[in-house]
Amino acid sequence: MKTMTCKQLSGACDQEFHADTFEEMAKLSQMHGRDMYQKGEKEHIKKMNEMMELMKDPKAMKKFMDDMRKEFDASPED
Prior knowledge:
The protein has a two-stranded antiparallel ribbon. Helix content is 60%, strand content 10%. By secondary structure, the protein is mainly alpha-helical. The chain has one domain (2-74). It has helices at residues 22-38, 42-54, 58-74; strands at 2-5, 16-19.
């Protein structure tokens, strides 16, 4: 099990997520982002808008995901 924060995953806060795989970690981060978006939290909305722009460029999005996977892989086990 590994722990990463919203900020480590390109988010806006220090909320911690715990997961065994990168895919689980990404899903937890996405769910958190949607929750914060629904609550109207401005910093998370800003970060989500930045992500939407990034998603328009497949190469940039692939690099982002590769970098996040490396960050996950480098994180220590809990």
